[in-house]
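Sequence design from tokenized structure. All designs in this work follow the same two-part layout: the structure record, then the generated sequence. An example of the structure record is given first.
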């Protein structure tokens, strides 16, 4: 042969390539618990977006990456699943900062109306 074959870098080559393009290529890497079954998450997350590992029937682990923490925040939030940040802690801090900025942009929440004290329906003008 023209070259000496070497052993494969992993048993699951598809997962190896997916991890290479979705996490290793980026400066910022994250491990996230998604509150969704792995099969459901896989319908919204491509192998280029991250590697999904089932945790149980209702949760899965997502390993993903981006060039900046803000891109990770947007990407994770727009997936549409509840989630928990496992690492890095800086990502959780960045999410808190963005949450606070969004809260300021929305202004104070209206006070809740007491039960049974709903406003009367509007009457047509006479």
């Amino acid at each position: 042969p023209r070259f000496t074959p070497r052993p494969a870098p992993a048993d699951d080559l598809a997962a190896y390539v997916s991890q290479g393009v979705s996490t290793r290529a980026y400066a910022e890497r994250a491990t996230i618990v998604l509150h969704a079954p792995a099969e459901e998450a896989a319908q919204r997350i491509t192998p280029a977006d991250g590697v999904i590992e089932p945790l149980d029937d209702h949760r899965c682990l997502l390993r993903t990456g981006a060039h900046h923490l803000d891109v990770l925040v947007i990407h994770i939030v727009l997936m549409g699943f509840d989630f928990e940040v496992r690492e890095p802690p800086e990502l959780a801090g960045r999410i808190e900062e963005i949450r606070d900025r969004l809260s300021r942009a929305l202004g104070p929440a209206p006070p809740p109306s007491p039960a049974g004290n709903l406003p009367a329906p509007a009457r047509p003008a006479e």
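The chain has a mean pLDDT of 85. We note this feature because it recurs in several other targets discussed in the main text.
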